[in-house]
Fold this sequence. Notes:
Helix content is 29%, strand content 29%.
Amino acid sequence: MNYAYRHCEEPAGRRSCKGDVAIQNSHTYSILLRLLQKPRNDTENGITLVEIIVVIFIIGIFSVILVADFPTIQKQFALSRATYKLGQDIRKTEDLGLSGVQITDKVKGYGIYFNLQNSPAVKYLIYADIDGNQEFDGNFLTGFCSDDSGEDCIIEIVDISEESKSLYIDRIENIDNPVSGFTSVNFSPPNPTVKISNIINMCQGDLCQYADRIGIVLKLNSDDSLERTVFVNKSGMIEVR
Length: 241
């Protein structure tokens, strides 16, 4: 610690300044002593060892829970991503029908096709309606669109299992055969006109049943309680639940 001393060079016969230096040193030490003896407030106390152990224990518990649930969390995110992508693909197909974009000169409309005959169903496709019957006449082996396509052709095939191997299309609500049937949602320009094939539309006696929308249900084979649904109605409105 550095202390300031006065440098005394006084003429002979005059008083020396050594006494002043001693007084200053005594005053400085008294101030330091008071500071060292000043009691600390509670807020200035350090963290105890017990508190550190408790914090580490709590962090460890949360880490174990997170690691144990991580695979399930991943699958839930994959289900959500696949569901929203399906909704976006339906919207994209509708936009194609609304804009009237011509992939080939023979296109009459565009649609999205689902087929649950092969289980587990993990694919759907976007197609171009060439023959103008407002539904898909082919299958997943149908060729992709080209300039000389003379029949319905495929624009894109989407495999939802690429998000997660546990994902699949469980059923399609409000069609004739929800579990193993097929359907296409077709959009024909310019409005576009929406046609949903194989949608429930039947009467038994005086009792008639009409559906105005279908629901494509996606699930995880590792947990049947988790499912998400994309609805599309005859007006082209899309809803994700």
